[in-house]
Amino acid sequence: MKEKAKLPARAKPAKAQLSAERGTTVWAVNSLRSDALVALLDDLVALEDFGLEEDRCVLVRKALAKLTNAATGIPDGSWWRRQIYQELQDFEALYAGWNDVNGAEAVHRNDRAQRVKQLRRKRNRIATRIRNNQYIIQNELDLRLIRDTYEAFGELTRAVPGLFISLAKAVSRFNEKTQAA
Questions:
Q1: What pTM value is reported for the model?
Q2: What are phi and psi of 126, to 5 degrees?
Q3: What is the mean pLDDT of the chain?
Q4: Scanning 3, 8, 46, 118, which has its CA 20 to 30 A from the CA of 170?
């Protein structure tokens, strides 16, 4: 029986070191997906009974639009632009649908509850994409994008104090940790 000649092993490229330390882009994106977006959903659940008045809804839409708009500043063809931009637009549209449900009757509360479930699924999709692509995020994403997003969320919490309690805490945690870094 003839033995196969062994081919030399291919040199495998060295994997880049992932840095998720406080103050890095990876850390900031992980904070956004696991803290700020979750906090926003927590607040929406708390507001489920009545929804938001239109003027306050507009403020939330503006904050979400800033996140989506920031993604447009990333060059075409980059991972963030291809993978996340559409997800962020979808999240923004789902939020708009949540607030378009008017009324405090059981049927309206139920509708808002179903829309929060859709928002959770979308946030989970965003989070999964981020978790699976941390090396790419480290190399392609600017920390400024995430800081701008947190600033928009901070503006929202200051514009309607006491309404987005969980989100205000998430913004505060992010700001404290970035200043300490």
A1: 0.80
A2: -60, -45
A3: 82
A4: 118
